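User: Can you predict the 3D structure for this chain?
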Amino acid sequence: MGAITAKGHEGEVRWVYLPAITFGPWSFAGDGHSGTLKAQIVRCDAYRTTQRPLVVVVPVGRAEWRWNVSDLQISGTELTASVVRQ
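Assistant: Here is the predicted structure, written as structure tokens:
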């Protein structure tokens, strides 16, 4: 599958069903299976971000995209996550 890029306005990183990070504008670059998500953090729960498994959830129209988080980096209010499709 070829390269995919996408952008959105909001989303969450969840631990189980609980929000660990709520984020604003985001971008995704990768292929159909994995990639990198970059986002601006709005709210962050320090404890939940250390738990596993974490899942990125972003609304897309009436549906949502979900990716498993394989690596998570936080620098100030910037989030970078390596993700793999569920």
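Residues 46-49 form the longest helix (4 residues). The radius of gyration is 12 Å.
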